[in-house]
Amino acid sequence: MSATTISLEIADPYAQALMALAQDQNLEDQFGESAQEILDLLSASEELDRFLSNPLVAEESKKGVLEQISTDLNPLFKNFLKLLVDKGRIGFIAPILKRYQELLRQLRRTVLAEVTAAVELSEAQQDQIRQKVVAMTDAQHVDLAVTIDPTLLGGVIIKVGSQVVDASLRGQLRRLSMQLI
């Protein structure tokens, strides 16, 4: 079994439990925002991620750090994070929270579009991309995850699930060179 498979097998039940708790309290979206805040913190601080994943760090130290970084979060969400520490699953916090967000998107009939652009996109451009993705997928809502890649030269690459739309200048040049060959 790969590490990813093990991670998903551990993450799914905890994400399902968090979703059940959120639904009982009508806090699905609030928990989704909290999950994103924690994921942003983890991606911004590799040190924090290593600290929480380290099995040699005392549980109380981990809970103390979680308390400090989650002061504005819902108490039920904070208790869930502490439960992960108690169960020795805090090292899987990122996969659990990402899985929760997937469940929330399924619940809200929302798709995630991973957009790679050559430059920062304006709101109007992002709205155009959302409209195109809604037309492609029949989803009710679209979340955009935008990444900037100057090597594209211009245009965008949109990935929704297994579908990829390459409207980048680099992609067009590659297709043109293939036709010439």
Automatic annotation (TrEMBL):
<dbReference type="GO" id="GO:0046933">
    <property type="term" value="F:proton-transporting ATP synthase activity, rotational mechanism"/>
</dbReference>
<keyword id="KW-0813">Transport</keyword>
<keyword id="KW-0066">ATP synthesis</keyword>
<dbReference type="InterPro" id="IPR020781">
    <property type="entry name" value="ATPase_OSCP/d_CS"/>
</dbReference>
<dbReference type="Pfam" id="PF00213">
    <property type="entry name" value="OSCP"/>
</dbReference>
<comment type="similarity">
    <text>Belongs to the ATPase delta chain family.</text>
</comment>
<dbReference type="GO" id="GO:0031676">
    <property type="term" value="C:plasma membrane-derived thylakoid membrane"/>
</dbReference>
<comment type="function">
    <text>This protein is part of the stalk that links CF(0) to CF(1). It either transmits conformational changes from CF(0) to CF(1) or is implicated in proton conduction.</text>
</comment>
<keyword id="KW-0139">CF(1)</keyword>
<protein>
    <recommendedName>
        <fullName>ATP synthase subunit delta</fullName>
    </recommendedName>
</protein>
<dbReference type="InterPro" id="IPR000711">
    <property type="entry name" value="ATPase_OSCP/dsu"/>
</dbReference>
<keyword id="KW-0472">Membrane</keyword>
<keyword id="KW-0793">Thylakoid</keyword>
<comment type="function">
    <text>F(1)F(0) ATP synthase produces ATP from ADP in the presence of a proton or sodium gradient. F-type ATPases consist of two structural domains, F(1) containing the extramembraneous catalytic core and F(0) containing the membrane proton channel, linked together by a central stalk and a peripheral stalk. During catalysis, ATP synthesis in the catalytic domain of F(1) is coupled via a rotary mechanism of the central stalk subunits to proton translocation.</text>
</comment>
<dbReference type="GO" id="GO:0045259">
    <property type="term" value="C:proton-transporting ATP synthase complex"/>
</dbReference>
<dbReference type="InterPro" id="IPR026015">
    <property type="entry name" value="ATP_synth_OSCP/delta_N_sf"/>
</dbReference>
<keyword id="KW-0375">Hydrogen ion transport</keyword>
<keyword id="KW-0406">Ion transport</keyword>
